[in-house]
Fold this sequence. Notes:
By secondary structure, the protein is of the alpha/beta class. It has helices at about 1-35, 45-60, 70-80, 95-100, 135-140, 155-170, 185-195, 205, 210-215, 240-250, 255-260, and strands at about 40-45, 65-70, 85-90, 110-115, 115-120, 150, 180, 200-205, 215-220, 230-235.
Amino acid sequence: MNRESxxxxxxxxxxxxxxxxxxxxxxxxxxxxxxxxxxVAAAAxxxxxxSEIALQYHxxxxxxxxxxxxxxGNFYRQIHxxxxxxxxLSADESYVSQLASAGKTLDDGALYALGRIVxxxxxxxxxxxxSELLGLxxxxxxxxxxxxxxxxxxxxxxxxRAAEALQHAGLWGALQGKLVLGENVAQAAQFATSGNAxxxxxxxxxxxxxxxxxxSRFALIPPDWHQPxxxxxxxxxxxxxxxxxxxxxxxxxxARKILRTYGFSLPDED
Length: 270
């Protein structure tokens, strides 16, 4: 009897253990769901800065995000068409304003940075990098410019500002037929520094990256030569708690410090 009783107790114990494991499975799945990685659409000028911020976010919280970089205009169109982004960081706040007006966002978002543009050249280019674009004017007059790279002004804010600066300098007409258009400003930076072009106009934040600094020279273009690059971010209607947490982190001192390191001015600072 005692043996049977002991065996019965063992069976009950094993049975309870199995039930406890089965009962824990939904909880395990729920815990895995807390590791949801929100999909973030970010303007290409943020390629280095935001990647560094995301790494710091992971270090601080253990959570990760999925970053997709491209032109703000293309992201605007994709969001309208239902792309599953939770957070949009635009290089031009007008795209965020239009999405908010269309009811695609939770609110009007937050201004997170003010961008700058630079003239950049490969180190072996005949083009001199100077703020007034005098070197570009002289190189054009000598016939030394075969290709010059900017982002596509049709949908890339940094391409629009590059075009405005070139028009201000009176060089837009002279560059027609020589322009190489990047799908976004990161691609334009690649064109401008790879040796396939004599130079280009790109985001200051990209020019400051170690990868480009090794192979190029650059000069800041005066900010009053173009419309301001007021960069705004916003949570979209399908944003999760994980997306909202990263959005909040982007407004904290650690993230703002990284943005400042990559040449961005912050909206509440001089």
